[in-house]
């Protein structure tokens, strides 16, 4: 697969004005083992986020560091059809203490000072408040994605 310089995602929701803090996951199949889960940065309040080609390559590398036996295939050999969904934070939140024992991977070290900082960022997402069934798109043809969310939880009182 040839990666575009960036992929921009714009989420919207009829029931919510503030879409800050959502994390989307792009599933990429490469090789015959597990697919790669590439995470977008959190959305801004307008629901916009952007993932660069360098971020995708870096997260591919991190998958190899995390579980070499579970992945194979390269970004060059990856299927052009990818699936975008809201990332599910449940496993991270349940295994938070165990995940603290891991060190940061190479690409993560470029952005995060510690594993705790990274895990806190991920765990604080607002993904539980919204529902999105996902979409499949072709890369590099599709570089601007519009997705519609549904609210599933009322906002918390402050």
What's a concise summary of this model?
The protein is of the alpha+beta class and 158 residues long. It has five helices and eight strands. The radius of gyration is 16 Å and the shape is globular.
List the helices and strands and how they pair.
Layout: E1 6-13, E2 24-28, E3 36-39, E4 48-52, H1 53-66, E5 81-86, H2 90-94, H3 96-99, H4 106-109, H5 115-123, E6 130-131, E7 135-138, E8 144-151
Parallel strand pairs: 1-8
Antiparallel strand pairs: 1-4, 2-3, 2-5, 5-7, 6-8
Keywords:
158 residues, alpha+beta, Immunoglobulin-like, 5 helices
Count of beta strands:
8
- Gyration radius, rounded: 16 Å
Strand content: 25-35%
Largest sheet, strands/sense/barrel: 4 strands, mixed
Mean pLDDT: 92
Gross morphology is globular
Q: Percent range for helical residues? A: 10-25%
Sheet with the most strands: spatial strand order: 4-1-8-6
CATH topology of the domain at 6-88 and 131-148: Immunoglobulin-like
What does this protein structure show overall?
- This protein has five helices and eight strands, in the order E-E-E-E-H-E-H-H-H-H-E-E-E.
- The longest helix is centred in the middle third of the chain and has 14 residues, at 53-66.
- It has helices at residues 53-66, 90-94, 96-99, 106-109, 115-123; strands at 6-13, 24-28, 36-39, 48-52, 81-86, 130-131, 135-138, 144-151.
- The strands form two sheets. Strands 4-1-8-6 form a four-stranded mixed β-sheet. A four-stranded antiparallel β-sheet has the order 3-2-5-7.
- The chain has 158 residues and is α+β, with helices and mostly antiparallel strands.
- It has a domain at 6-88 and 131-148: Immunoglobulin-like, CATH 2.60.40.
- The radius of gyration is 16 Å and the shape is globular.
